[in-house]
Amino acid sequence: MRSLLSATGDDWDRRGHRLVVLGEPPSSAAWARDWLLAEPDSTDAAALLACAAVRAALRGKERPESARAACLVAAGRAPHDPTPWLAQLLLARTLGTEEEVVRLFDEVRVRHPEHHHAHHLMVARLAERHVAAGQDPLHEVYDFASWAAEQAPADSPLAVLPVVAHTERYRVLAAAAGRPADPVTSGHWTSRRARQVMKAAFDWWLEWEGEDHPRNRLDLNFLAHAKYCEGRSAEAAALFHRIGPHATPDPWSYPDRDPHHAFQAARDSALGSV
């Protein structure tokens, strides 16, 4: 782990991804504290402890105040690293106020304007606002996603963010209905605006050469899910071929489905139709 994080350098998306994943196991916080005892000045150990403490707090096994304190220590040791702020944003996405979420997102973005995970967290949080507005095409989550995609460079995977926003909004609306919903028959992906968003994202993907992005499979799963729900089996099949067996829980679990079963059923259907 020490060598891995050292080799990651300032590839901030990759560093954030690795630390958030490494911080997930329940044993990670104790391991990070042992590392800090051995190397008290290690910025990597401090960042790992921050991510592990946040994960523990989200499981109810650590006080949120302690997790925030660990994040601030890590941030102080590495002022240019967005990862401690990402960890705080991950915590605030569930437990924080709207003002806190916006402030932490800004802290991440000032250090890495295209931060992939931070933008996904913002979209998920914004999608939960104004549930009563229903399918409103002018909902703020769509504006935010479009703005972020337009601001990003041409080769940025944030081009897929409008699709993510549309899917996160589906998660919220389906859950608000109080019953399980089949995304394919929900009609959520059949509006003209939804089809335009998905076509633009799919056309971008066809020319994208960033297959080594650490969160690449997440974007592909969101896009495959959208194309399948739209009824574009051939396009979905192309994405499933690229994804292989690497399903991600989001968005296949939306709104309350078994993600493995949902992914496999969609994959089998799409591949069997072409």
TrEMBL record:
Species per Swiss-Prot/TrEMBL record: Streptomyces tirandamycinicus
Protein name in UniProt: Tetratricopeptide repeat protein
InterPro entries: TPR-like_helical_dom_sf
Record lineage: Bacteria, Bacillati, Actinomycetota, Actinomycetes, Kitasatosporales
